[in-house]
Amino acid sequence: MTIAGLVLCVAGGVQAQDRVQVQGTSPDLYVLHTVKKGETLYSLGRSYSLSPKEIASENNISAEQGLQLGQSVKIPLNNTNFSQKTDAGGTPVYHKVEEKETLYRLSVNHNKVSLDNIRRWNNMTGDGLQKDGFVIVGYLKGTGIPASAPVASNPSTTPAPATHPVSTPPATTPTPTPSTPAPSTPVATTPAAGTTPAPPVAKPDQQAPPEPATTTPTPAPATNSGATKPAPAASAGSSFEQLYNQQTSNGKSVTAEKGPGGWFKSNASPGKYYALHNTAPRGTIIKVTNPLNGKFIYAKVLEAIPQIKQNEGLIIKLSDSALEALGTNEAKFYCQLNYEE
């Protein structure tokens, strides 16, 4: 079986032979390179933006010993040669989805990369993953390209997948193919992933205030939240509050729980909250209320709470950004939950 992590190195830089597939989990992430004719530790170092000594040390070989044709070399991924920032560019690095793997788990295993970045890079509109599918988790930098090129290459790398799928719908309007893709099918898909996530992460200081402003203040006047929230979330689909209303409407039974909650570190964009819960199915929207001050938020369930000692007795764990919205800074806090049974 061909290792997807194989990379063909050319004098100019790194070029993917198939897909560059990440191996391991953070903090030990790496890709495998199969040595081609004429390649040395120095040429690999130039291609992967690493020092020859670092590559040699990672593979327990000496600089004098050199490389053998066909040898599999471990190339570590670090801040020098691997980027997971919103504006990252270069050669995409893929993760092969495992059975029952969630987007949250994938993020944790790859340096807690932002969930919004993963959605944006892969043109995802939801959180569902397909077994054996490939998901971009970051970008490999190459020294053979000018420093500005990687940043510029990202925009063209992301839209590429978006324009291909769009060329199918334009069957009805062959001529306006370039202009139709944006307004017709992708309007709810591509723009969503490219417009909403990108700004919040790239410039948190500017974009963070707007979202929380619409999310946090809104809960107090429960009647106005429906009119205010949809604005920022419209491009990405229904807001969590709207989804909650849909899930609990039409006489559906709503479960109520009270007890201690905890939190976990997350890179979710401001104004979006996520939760770990033991009984609510993945994708369920839970309304979480702080009885001490009446503040509440809506959080989307990612997966179950890990069964470890520090989580004993917790009825929910929320992404850290939810704590400020609920008006608490306690490691454990009392809360009330409401969600579809």
TrEMBL record:
SMART domains: LysM
Source domain of life: Bacteria
Chain positions covered by the region annotation Disordered: 150-239
Compositional bias segments (type: Low complexity): 150-166, 185-196, 213-223
Record SUPFAM superfamilies: LysM domain
Gene3D superfamilies: LysM domain, RlpA-like domain
InterPro entries: LysM (IPR018392), LysM_dom_sf (IPR036779), RlpA-like_sf (IPR036908)
Location of the LysM domain: 31-75, 93-138
Protein name: Peptidoglycan-binding LysM
